[in-house]
Amino acid sequence: GVAEAAVVARPGPDGALRLVGYAVPAAGGALDEAALRRALAETLPEALCPARILALPALPLSPNGKLDTRRLPEPDWAGPDRRRPRTAREAAVAQAFAQVLGLDAVGIDDSFFDLGGHSLLATRLVSRLRAALGAELPLRAVFEAPTVSALSGWIAAAGDDAAGRAGPTRTPLVARPRPDVVPLSPAQTRMWLLSRIDGAHPYTIPIALRLAGALDADALRAALADVVARHESLRTRVVEIDGAPAQHVLPPDAARPALDVRAADPASWPDALSAAARAPFDLAVDLPIRARLYRFGPDAHGLLLLIHHAAADGWSLTPLMRDLAAAYAARLRGAAPDRPALPVQYADYTLWQRDRLGDEAAPDSLIAREIGYWRAQLAGLPEGLALPTDRPRPATASHRGRRVPLALGPDLHRALADLARRERASLFMVLQAGLSALLTRLGAGEDIPLGSPIAGRTDEALDGLVGCFVNTLVLRTDTSGDPSGRDLVGRARAVALEAYAHQDVSFERLVEVLNPPRSLARHPLFQVMLALQDGVPATFALAGLRAVPDSVGAGAARFDLAFDLVERRESDGTEAGVVGHLEYATDLFDEASATRLAHRFARLLAALAAAPDRPIGDLDLFEAGERRQVLTDWNATARAVPYGTLPALVATQAARAPEAVAVVAGSEVLRYAGLEARANRIAHALIARGIGPENIVAVALPRGPDLVAALLGVLKAGAAYLPLDPGYPAARLALMLADARPSCLVTVDGVPRPDGLPALVLGSPEGSAALATASAQAPTDRDRTSPLVPAHPAYVIYTSGSTGRPKGVVVSHASLTNLLHALVDRLGVTPADRLLAVTTVGFDIAGLELFGPLVRGARVVLAERDDVLDPGRLGQLIGAAGITLMQATPTLWRGLVETEALHGVRVLVGGEALPPDLAGALSARAARVTNLYGPTETTIWSTAADIDPGEEAVPIGAPLWNTQAYVLDDGLRPVPPGTVGELYLAGAGVARGYLGRPGLTAERFVACPFGPPGARMYRTGDRVRWRSDGHLDYLGRADHQVKVRGVRIEPGEVEAALVARPGIAQAVVTARQGRPGETRLVGYVVPSPGAALDPEDLRRALTATLPDALVPASIVTLDALPLTPNGKVDRAALPEPEPAADLAADPPRTETERRLAAVWAEVLGLPSVGRGDNFFAKGGHSLLVARVVARLNEAHAIALPLRAVFEARTLADLAVAIDSRNADGVDADIDAMSDLLDALEHAE
Fold first, then answer.
1. Quick check: 488 pLDDT over 70?
2. How confident is the model at residue 41 (pLDDT cuts 50, 70, 90)?
C-alpha cells in the first residue's frame, strides 16, 4: 500500500534525533500509521523503526529531481493521531505510565524511556502496575517491552504463564500490627553494629541549603517537628533487648528536634559544615536527625540537616524536602500541615520484608533463590581490582578521601540517553558499560565488579517514605574480547537486569554468605562504586525562600573510587547534563590522578556515544595534547652522534694522550698507547685468518688488560665479539658456542675450548708469534676483508630464554656508540674519572664499564671476582683506586651501601628494579645516583633517571639519546599518562635481532607504527606507566606477576616491605603452587650479619604494612640468595619451602589461646577450634565479631578492639596480639570507626 517513501532524522520532543518516515500511499489506498509501524517492527530492529510515519500525496522534489528534505513537514509529536488505549489493560498501563512520568496522557505506542523513564521510575511503574492490575512484573519486562502496547501484551502473556514469566504476586505492603519487639532491618543492624564499636563516628547524610529570603525560624522549627512526626524512622532509637538490637519508636511529642540557631560568616560556613557533620550520634539516645540554622544576615541563612544513615538514604531526600516544604508553608499560615497519612511506616516495611524473604533454610524461599543466584554470579570474583593507583595499598585503609568534580554536558547527556534508548537500556547501564570499559583500558582486567546502590523501593507504598531502603548490588561486567561499545552496553544491561531481579538479599548478608577473604585494606566484592540518582532537584522550594543545595566535605572515602552522579533535566524533560563528583581514597590516589580519571571517564563516554560500534579498545582516552606528549614530546631525543665505530673513538683518545692509563687490573697497568697497539696487533692477526665484518669471534679471557685489548681487536678487525666468562658453567659456554658458531676463539691456555674451533691463544708460542709479526697500526678497510660500517655487528650477547635455550642478541656498532655517547655525556665523564668494572663480561652492561671510560680518555679499573663477592674488599678497592664511577646491580649495591666507600662516587644502578629504600640509602652516601633501565635487546641501557633523596617511588626515567619509549596496550595502542601498559622501545638502540632465530626476532622485534617507514620496536615484556613529568615508572615483569585469590600482585612490593624490616639484608618473593589451583607467595630472606629471624614473627609484622593477600604464606631463611652469573637473583634456584604444619589441627597451647578458642567455639557453634583456624573461614561474620569481643570482655576481662579480629589471620595470631596489648599496657579503647568501615564489609 506504499508507492514511495523517505526516512529522515528529526529532533524529537526531547531534542534527541528520531527517525521520521514519509510515505505516499499507492493509488486509491490509505495509510494506517500504526499498522505500518507494527509491520516494520516485525522485520526491523527497534532502532530502525520510525517514531512517526506521515502520509503525503507526493514527496517534495528539488529542480533536479532529488528529494528536497527541507520541504518535508515536521511531525506533530503530541498530535491528536497518538493511538489511544484499546482495552482496559492498555488503559491501566497508559495511566500508570502517565502517573509515574508526570504526564497528562500517553499513547499506546509511546516508549517509557523515550518519555523520560529510567530505572528508578521503572521500579515505581512495576509497583503501580502491581497495585492496579495485580500483576507481578520483573523489572526486565519494562526494558524488553517499553511501550504501553508491548507491556500490555507482556502482562497478558504472563497471565497465561505466570510462573514462567512473572512469578507469584507478592504480599502487599500494608500497615500491620506491631509485635512487642520490632527487629532492625539489615541496614539498621549494620548501623547499630557501627555505633556499638565507636559511637564517635558520624555516619550521616548531610543536607546543606543556602536560603535566600525572609525566614521564620519558629515556623521552620515547627515544620521540622511535623516532618519527624510524619516519618517514624526519624524518631526511632535502637535499643538492646535481651542482647539483640530492636527498633524503639518514640511518640511525636517526645521527638521534637531542636533547631540550633547561630550567627555565622558565609565565608567560613563550609568549615562549619564539615565540623558539624563530624559530630557523633548515639543511636540508643539521640534522634537520628539534627538541624542547625546559620544566620548570615537578615535575609540570608544556611540550613544544615544531619540524618543518620539508619534513618534515611539518598532517595529519601525528595519526600523529606517535599514534606518539609509543605509543613513550613502551613506553619507560616499558622496552621498544621494537612497531608494524607502515610500508608506504611518503616517498621511495617521491616516486618513485611522479613516475611517476604522467608527462611534461607527453605530452598523455595525468595531469600534462598536469590542467594543461589549471587553465589553463581559472583563465583571466582577477583578479590581486588588492579587500579592505576599512585601508591601501594596500605595494610589498613584510613578511609580518608577527597572529591573532584565530574560533569557531562547536556549534549553528551542527550547522546548517551539516545544510545540507551536505542539499546533498550537505561542511562545508568550505559554509564556502567563506560566505566567498565575505562577500568579495563586502565589495566584493571576484563572482570570488572562495580558496586551500585539500588533504591530498594519496590512497592509504591514506599515512594513517599523516609527510611533506609537502599541496597548495594555487585554488577560484574565481562569486558573480554574487546567488544564494541554497543555490545558492552548489552552485556551491562543483561547484568543489571539480572541484578535488579535479585535485589532483595542485602549486601550485608551477601558478604556473610559468600565470605570473601576479610581485609582491612579494601572493600569486599568491589572497590569501585557507581551511583546515578535521577530526578534530584537542583533547588528546593520553601515558601518565600530560594533554597540551593551546598556540598559538605566529609573528608572520607568508603571505597577506592566512587562515581556519584545526578541526572539533571529541563522543565520540559529534556536532558540538561549529568553532574556529580568522583570520591577517591587519598591512601591510593593523588588529586591530579583523580581529576585525570574523571576527565577520562567523560572522554570515553563521549567516544562511546559518538561511535558505539567501535571496539572499546579503540575509544580515545587522551586529553588534548596527551597523545602528542606520549608519542612525540617525551620522545624528542634526537641528538647528532658522530658517524663511526667504537675503535675509532678509542683511537682518538690514544692519539690525544698516549701515556694516560687506560686499564688497571691488580698490578697490571696498560696505557692508551699500549692498549691501542695491542688491540691493533690482535686485529691484524684475526684479519690474517680471514676474519672480518659479519663474522663472530668468541673471546674467553681472564679479567685483565688483555680482555679489553682483545675485545677492541675483534672490533677493529670488523668482526663481532662473543664474550665468554671462563667462570661460567661449561655446559652454558658450550651452548653459546654451538649456537653462535664463531669463526675463531681468542683465549689463553688453561681455558677449555671445543675441538675444531680455530683459536688465537694469547701467550702461547703460536699466538705470540702471530702478534709479533702483526702490525701495530690501526687496520683500515683496505686491510679488512670488507669495509666496516656502523651497521655491522659489534657483539653478540646471550640472554636467558624462556624455554631454557639462551638467545644471542646481535648489536651493531651504531647502537653501541649511540649508547656510549649518550651516557658519557649525561654522566659528564672526563679523563680524570676512574670507573670500577665489576660486571662479568658475559653481561651486556659490562660494555659500558669497559668502553665508556675509554671513549673519554678515562681509566677502567677491573675488579677481580673475589673482590666483587666480598663487600669489604670491594669497598677498600674503591677507596684505594680513587674510583669516581661505578655501575652495579641493586643486589651488589645492597652489600656496599653501608660502607664508607661511596662518598664522592657517582653510582649507576641497573639490571634489576631499584627498591626505594636502597635508592634512599645510596643517595645519602654517593655523589650522584642514576637509575638505568634497558634490556639487552636495546643495547645495554635505554632510559635513565637521576634519583633524588627521599623519592617514594623510583622511576626508570626518560629515554636516552635517539631512543623512543612507547607504553602500549595489548592492541599496540598508546595509553595515556598514569595508565599501565607494556613498554616498547624504538630508535638507535634496537638490536639487529636474535642470532639465527628469525621467528623469535619477528615476534619480539615488531614494526613501529609511530616511526619512519621500516622502523622497528622491541617488546620488552615490562609493565610501566608514564609519570606526568615524562619519566617512566617500572611496575615489574608481566611474567613475574602473580595472582593470589584473584588479586594481581607485584612481588617487588612485598620484597620492599621485607627489606624494610630490621635484620633483613636481602629478600626475594616468588609464587609457588600449593594445592591444585592454589597459588601462594613464598618469601626468601637473607638475615643481616648477627641477626636472627623468626619467619612467623616476620609474617605477623608484615600484616601491619601489607594487605593480607600480599603477606607470604611461608618465609624461608637463606644464607645467601642464589645468583646468576650476571649478578641477578636466580629465581629458578630458590628452594621449595618446607611443608607447613597444619596449625588448624593444632590445639591451643597458651592460656590466651584456650580462652579465645572457647569463645570462638561458643559463638560459631563449633565443637572445637584450632590454633591455625581463621574466624571468617569457620563461618564468622561482622556481627559475630562483636559478640566475640563482648564475650571476651564479659567472661575473661579481655578488652579488644574489633579491628584486631580482622587483622589476625589465625587464632594464634590473635592470641599474640592480645598478649602484646597486655604486655605493653595498650589502652583497649576502640579506634576511629573510619578505620573499620571496609572491615565490616557493608555498604549502603
1. yes
2. confident
Task: Please indicate, yes or no, whether residues 331 and 462 belong to a single structural domain of this protein.
Answer: no
CA–CA gap between residue 1210 and residue 1188 (Å, rounded): 14
Q: What is the CATH number of the domain that holds 596?
A: 3.30.559.30
pLDDT at 1213 over 90: no
| Parent domain of 155 | 88-102+112-161
Residue type, 1124: T
CA distance 967 to 978: 10
H-assigned helices in 1036-1127 = 1051-1059, 1095-1102
Q: How far is CA 313 from the centre of its chain?
A: 28
Asked if residue 202 is part of any domain, the answer here is yes
Tally of structural domains, the chain: 7
Domain annotation covers residue 147: yes
Using an 8 Å Cβ cutoff, are 919 and 943 in contact?
A: no
Residues in CB range of 1012: below 8 A, 6 or more apart: none
d(CA 201, CA 887): 54
Residue with cell 500500500: 1
Q: Which residues contact 1165 (CB under 8 A, 6 or more apart)?
A: none
Are 564 and 681 members of one domain?
A: no
Which among 444, 445, 420, 442 has a CA at the least distance from the CA of 432?
A: 420
Task: Tell me: do 248 and 156 sit in the same domain.
Answer: no
Q: Are residues 513 and 598 in the same domain?
A: yes
- The three-class DSSP label of residue 977 is coil
Residues 660 and 606 in one domain: no
In the prediction, which pLDDT does 167 show? 53
Q: Which of 873, 830, 847 is nearest to 794 (CA)?
A: 847
224-283 pLDDT tens trace: 999 999 999 999 999 888 767 899 999 999 999 999 999 999 888 888 888 888 788 888
Same domain, 1126 and 1222: no
DSSP state of 855: G
531 compared with 554, residue with greater pLDDT: 531
Identify the three-state secondary structure at position 1070: strand
Nine-digit cell string for 168: 507469584
Q: What is the three-class DSSP state of 317?
A: helix
Query: What is the residue-averaged pLDDT of the chain?
Result: 87
Instruction: For the chain, give percent helix, strand, coil, nearest 5.
Output: 35, 20, 40
Residue 826 CA from chain centroid, whole number: 35
Query: For residue 746, is pLDDT > 80?
Result: yes
Question: Which residues of 256-288 form beta strands (DSSP E)?
Answer: 259-263
The CA-atom distances, in angstroms, between 322 and each of 255, 318, 327, 758, 1111 are: 20, 6, 9, 97, 52
In what helix (H) or strand (E) does residue 1087 lie, and over which residues does it extend? strand 1079-1087
3-state secondary structure of 480: coil
Is 238 part of any domain?
yes
- Residues 536-594 pLDDT 10s: 566 677 898 988 888 776 677 889 999 999 998 887 778 889 999 999 999 999 999 99
Query: d(Cα 133, Cα 146) in Å, to the nearest integer?
Result: 17
Q: Do 677 and 764 share a structural domain?
A: yes
Indicate if 401 and 299 belong to the same structural domain. no
